[in-house]
Known about the structure:
By secondary structure, this protein is α+β, with helices and mostly antiparallel strands. The protein contains four helices and seven strands, in the order βααββββββαα.
Amino acid sequence: MDEPIRIDKWLWSVRVYATRSLATEECKKGRVTIGGVACKPSRVVKTGEIILVRKNPVTYSYRVIELLGKRVGAKLVPNYMEDITPQEELLKLDINYGGALFARDRGAGRPTKKDRRDIDKVTEW
């Protein structure tokens, strides 16, 4: 029987987030969900659960294969989780596909205050 593992610790262990405190913050902000419910950082993870992690603009989906409490190397991550993110979500990252949120011409300089407000309207959740 595996010992209970907190979701923030598991997300850090399988390298979804670089630090455990960052994983904790993302849970508190409601960006980590299990079964459509935002979960607290202290929620216990179970084998077979599907975890959705929202990282703007993509929502990643991971299936828990095995629990672990210590961080592992990147090559070992597939032993503990399966990335089941739909292809449509991953296409949002491809600039050529049109998934970019905004584009600026090269050499256009820094955005003006008005440009910044327009960008913020598009990118805010």
